[in-house]
């Protein structure tokens, strides 16, 4: 008998938690953009939802590229994307698509926020003067909103495809190399944006019943479609699903993360089923937080836990998250920056409900 020994030395993971933050935040940005742009084309648009979507798309759209730059390990090397031509590289296209998306989303967000900035500018404090300055005059930007929303929505679609395809392109990792991945990332990004907007509607002054009802209805359909899509991937995902099954069998940390993710999905579904029997306030907070956790956890499972399977060789790698900027501190710092921008924007615009809508006391919230 001949015994062949296979040695698989452990290698450090390439994509750090910064990548999870980028995929999560850019998903919130283009998801909020789509929701805000969709409102512009409705017969009876919801101004509250438009304002909240603009706040989220601007804040997340500013923080996401920062996380991506940090994940490059040597941020100064980003200029190589522009100094060299690489038509076969998905990331080379992304180097042009991402700045374009940032520009269009910031412009659309600003146009959607101008009415709120104008109202805030009518007050007499120092922040009101800043709000008036950011309006750049008293002209009406309504005529530009719909055309720009179309361009920005298409740009958001390009980013959704880019972020999915740059992962799917790694053929050496069967888990990633599947057409299911871009779809799952995009669909979950929309759920994340809907969950975040539910939270913002609760937290910011001017709670709006119509906004909450719209987001609850939309997020219910999105959650159900995401659950069916995950089931479809598990049954018909081919090599990708087989790789996930092998990781579930061989790696305790993958197994724990997968079970945690399924538990989150199950709890979200259970909350919707038990909605009439429990506190509406508790259910809203639970659905919003579980939705965000589900979206972030899916990216962690795919991007970080997925790298524990060697591209070549046998076995699995061990990963211990660092406490510094490449790990826990980076995650907390990114979320802290997002929160700071949300606070600043909410103080600038102070989104409010329509005067015709009276907000029930249990859900009224002061501005952040």
UniProtKB/TrEMBL annotation:
Principal cellular location given in the protein's record: membrane
Subcellular location(s) of the protein: Cell membrane
Superkingdom of this protein's organism = Bacteria
Concerning InterPro entries, the annotation shows: Electron_transfer_protein (IPR052049), NrfD-like (IPR005614)
What topology does it adopt in the membrane? Multi-pass membrane protein
**Is Oxidoreductase there in the keyword field?**
no
- UniProt-listed Pfam families: NrfD (PF03916)
Q: Which Gene3D superfamilies does this UniProt record tie to the protein?
A: Formate dehydrogenase/DMSO reductase domain (1.20.1630.10)
Q: Which keywords are on file for this protein?
A: Cell membrane, Membrane, Transmembrane, Transmembrane helix
Key word Cell membrane present in the record? Answer: yes
Q: Where is it found, in Gene Ontology cellular component terms? A: plasma membrane
Coiled coil residues, start to end: none
| Assigned protein family | Belongs to the NrfD family.
The name this protein goes by in its record: Tetrathionate reductase subunit C
Q: Which organism is it from?
A: Aeromonas caviae (Aeromonas punctata)
């Amino acid at each position: 008998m001949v015994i062949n020994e296979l040695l698989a030395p452990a290698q450090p993971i390439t994509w750090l938690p910064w990548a999870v933050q980028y995929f999560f935040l850019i998903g919130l940005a283009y998801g909020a953009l789509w929701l805000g742009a969709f409102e512009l084309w409705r017969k009876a648009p919801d101004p509250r939802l438009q304002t909240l979507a603009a706040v989220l798309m601007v804040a997340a759209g500013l923080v996401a590229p920062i996380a991506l730059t940090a994940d490059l390990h040597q941020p100064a090397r980003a200029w190589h994307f522009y100094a060299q031509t690489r038509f076969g590289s998905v990331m080379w296209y992304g180097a042009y698509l991402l700045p374009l998306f940032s520009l269009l989303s910031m412009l659309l967000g600003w146009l959607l926020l101008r009415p709120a900035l104008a109202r805030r500018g009518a007050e007499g404090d120092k922040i009101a003067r800043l709000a008036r300055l950011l309006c750049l005059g008293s002209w009406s930007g309504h005529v530009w909103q719909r055309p720009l929303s179309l361009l920005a929505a298409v740009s958001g679609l390009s980013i959704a495809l880019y972020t999915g395809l740059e992962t799917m392109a790694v053929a050496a990792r069967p888990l990633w190399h599947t057409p299911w991945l871009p779809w799952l990332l995009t669909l979950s990004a929309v759920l994340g944006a809907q969950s975040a907007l539910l939270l913002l509607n609760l937290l910011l002054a001017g709670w709006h019943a119509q906004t909450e009802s719209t987001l609850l209805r939309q997020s219910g359909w999105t959650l159900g479609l995401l659950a069916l899509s995950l089931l479809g991937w598990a049954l018909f995902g081919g090599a990708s699903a087989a790789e996930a099954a092998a990781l579930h069998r061989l790696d305790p940390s993958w197994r724990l993360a997968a079970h945690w993710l399924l538990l989150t999905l199950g709890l979200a579904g259970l909350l919707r089923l038990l909605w009439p029997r429990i506190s509406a306030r508790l259910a809203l907070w639970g659905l919003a937080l579980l939705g965000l956790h589900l979206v972030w956890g899916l990216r962690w499972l795919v991007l970080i836990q997925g790298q524990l399977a060697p591209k070549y060789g046998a076995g699995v790698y061990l990963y211990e998250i660092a406490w510094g900027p490449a790990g826990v501190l980076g995650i907390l710092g990114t979320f802290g920056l997002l929160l700071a921008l949300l606070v600043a924007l909410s103080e600038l615009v102070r989104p409010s409900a329509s005067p015709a809508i009276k907000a029930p006391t249990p859900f009224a919230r002061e501005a952040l």
